[in-house]
Amino acid sequence: MKIWKLASVAMKDGPSLIAADDILTAAVVKATSHDELSIDTESALFIYRNVRSNSSSLKPLVSAISSRVKRTRSWAVALKGLMLMHGFFLCKTTAAESIGRLPFDLSDFGEGNSRMSKSGGFNLFVRAYFAFLDRRSILFHDGNRHRYDEESSVMIRLVIIRKMQVIVDSLIRIKPIGEIMKMDLINEAMENVISEILEIYGWICRRIAEVLPNVHSKIGKTQADLALKIVTKSVSQGEELKKYFEFCRDLGVSNAKDIPDFVRIPEADVIHLDQLVRTEETENHQGEATETEIDLCEEEERETKSEFVCDLITLDDDDQEQPVSSPPKVDIPDLISF
Question: Keywords on this record (predicted)?
């Protein structure tokens, strides 16, 4: 069976390798092969080394990856393409911030498959991974316009923190479902997800600690209201993250073995924010983020939840033998400490 699968992979990837114009395009084909059991790490590392030494190569590489995943029906090719794109961010490639919205759309990947298809869980995984990566790429591209720094107004900093919380929400929607998905390729993708969560959620926690002391009666009700939403969200998100880490640890994801410690936001700070929200609204400072931007954050969060619910319903219909399993509920504090 293994020999037959290897032969099948060679037949599917062979024409693309022959048609490759250069060594980088060939590396993309190898790194996004049809092999569902493994990933060509050497080709991926070669691509990342090339981008670090020559940032101008990123654009043709992104184009090659996009061309590869746009015309595939293989979940393995689509997932490897997403992982390869994600690697540009994880490797701290500065040029990756210029990508913006991904040049391909996998939001409906595999939706035309038969209801009895065993690839339902894999297709859902690909769609969830794409939803996260597309949002992340857009946000970090927009970050060039509204960058978080000490000179940013309190409101801008709050809006960026809130948007980052939405990114974390999209990350924890990425979950393999059922025994059939317990394989090395999925685990490697989950390691990327855990690495991203640790970095982004750690950033959120540090920024909350920095900005909360600056939230006071003089900045206005709108800012206080957003700060309260951020703190409230951090509580529920911390609980979800603890369960998610336990799920990943049980799955065997290597960097989820040690569940981070969590610390609680002082209750006095929460009460203080609630009191500020109840006061009369004062004028916003000129040049600060508007309520429209806050509404966009909330809309993105609703869209993330809506997409996840719809996908679960679709998966239920597609494959009755692979029910959605949820880890046990555990009450935990809300912020991660490093």
Answer: Coated pit, Cytoplasmic vesicle, Endocytosis, Golgi apparatus, Membrane
Identical fold between 1-101 and 105-338: no
N residues, the chain: 338
Classify domain 1-101 by CATH number: 1.25.40
Q: Is residue 78 within a helix (H) or strand (E), and if so which, with residue range? A: helix 75-90
Mean pLDDT (whole number) for 265-275: 71
What is the residue whose two structure tokens read 């750690």? Answer: 202
Is the pLDDT score of 281 beyond 70?
no
For residues 203 and 335, what is the distance between their CA atoms, to the nearest angstrom? 11
Q: Which residues pair with 335 in a beta bridge?
A: 263
Q: Do residues 262 and 335 touch, judged by C-beta distance below 8 A? A: yes
**d(Cα 152, Cα 145) in Å, to the nearest integer?**
11
* Residue recorded with tokens 């390798």: 17
3 C-beta neighbours (distance < 10 Å), count: 7
pLDDT in tens, 156-193: 889 999 999 999 999 999 999 888 999 999 999 999 99
**Residue 263 CB: number of other CB atoms within 10 A?**
14
| Chain centroid offset of residue 281 CA | 35
Residue ranges per structural domain of the chain: 1-101, 105-338
Q: Which residues pair with 262 in a beta bridge?
A: 336
**Paired tokens of 307:** 């997409």
What digits encode the pLDDT tens for the residues 79-128? Answer: 999 999 999 999 888 888 889 999 999 999 988 765 456 788 999 999 99
Q: Token pair for residue 204?
A: 């959120």
String of DSSP letters for 8-27: HHHHHHHHHHHH--SHHHHH
CA distances from 300 to 222, 229, 304 (A): 19, 14, 6
CATH fold for the domain made of 105-338: Methane Monooxygenase Hydroxylase; Chain G, domain 1 (1.20.58)
Tell me the backbone φ, ψ of residue 82, rounded to 5 degrees: -65, -40
Question: Residue 30: which of 57, 52, 12, 54 has the closest Cα?
Answer: 12
pTM, rounded to two decimals: 0.81
- Residue identified by tokens 């015309």 is 71
